[in-house]
Design a protein that fits this description.
About 20% of the residues lie in helices and about 20% in strands. A four-stranded mixed beta sheet has the order 2-1-4-3, with helices on one face. Strand 3 and strand 4 form a beta hairpin. The chain is elongated and about 80 Å long. The model has no long low-confidence stretch (mean pLDDT about 75). The protein is of the alpha+beta class and about 120 residues long. It is built from two helices and four strands.
């Protein structure tokens, strides 16, 4: 058996020692048994902003946030720039006539080579 626990936890991106992670998972599991699906309630009750169970590198990971902002930076877009925003959150313009293009390969036209008309 490995000396590494299959349960891990982090608070604001900082990993917890195995014993603390197991304790947090135990408390989280007990709460979830009594309040099925209420991760937000567990977070509130323990003074956290959010708690998210996930799976990473072969371990169950409990990700805890004590602040609104995530400690990780979002990945950079190629070119390092954000796309320009449209005023008022408008949708991109539609094609002329506002319709989708007709599906290909349907209906009219010449019959296929493998069929004969009688």
């Amino acid at each position: 058996m490995s000396d590494r626990s299959n349960l891990a936890a982090s608070i604001d991106g900082a990993p917890l020692p195995d014993e603390e992670a197991r304790d947090l998972w135990t408390r989280f599991s007990r709460y979830m048994d009594e309040h099925r699906g209420d991760t937000a309630g567990f977070a509130r009750e323990n003074g956290y902003v959010s708690v998210t169970p996930t799976f990473e590198r072969g371990r169950a990971l409990l990700v805890v946030r004590t602040t609104e902002a995530s400690p990780e930076k979002p990945p950079q877009r190629p070119g390092g720039e954000k796309p320009p925003q449209r005023p008022g959150g408008e949708k991109p313009p539609q094609r002329p006539g506002g319709e989708k293009p007709a599906p290909r390969g349907g209906g009219g036209g010449k019959p296929s080579r493998g069929r004969r008309r009688r």
